[in-house]
Specification:
Ribosomal_uL15/eL18, ribonucleoprotein, Large ribosomal subunit protein uL15/eL18 domain-containing protein, Ribosomal Protein L15, Chain: K, domain 2, Ribosomal_uL15, alpha/beta, Ribosomal_uL15/eL18_sf
Amino acid sequence: RLCTRTGAWLKLFLPRARAGRSAKRRSSPARSNLPRGSMTARYKKSRHLRGQVSNGRGRIGKHRKHPGGCGNSGGQHHHRINFDKYHPGYFGKVGMRNFHFIKHGKVIPTINVERLWPLVSEQTRTYYKEHTDKAPVIDVVKAGYMKVTGKGQLPEQPMIVKARYFTKEAETKIKEAGGVCVLCA
């Protein structure tokens, strides 16, 4: 910047030595308590490119549009090396397509034996504890399950369980507790 009075160049924006610091800048970034992946601002490329008008992005495009194409474009052409190296088998097909095959056709929601009693309300549980000659009917299908599996323990209290499927272990545990397994379609 020129001085208006003398016409001499002013050294306004040159860094000056501060107290307790040398005027010379360090060549490598100092270790700090910054989060990993963040960089010291003064070493960034953007600081180096200050005053260069377009910041290395070009005057015409102005860092707009997508020079390599949008998204995954060019996977078989100009980005082929990347796709072959990091995503092998991304393109192409293998085998025959089965027209009638439904991938997730048979979904069977399951429930464990230990979670049967919580399906019944607390009042019902206490009622059937007192009246042992009767047994509650627990309809698993109404609760949104189809299969009863045998994980966990059952209290020694009879019950009637309705479900579409029972595992052998679940069936034995229910029968040992004095209950009955009823298959329903």
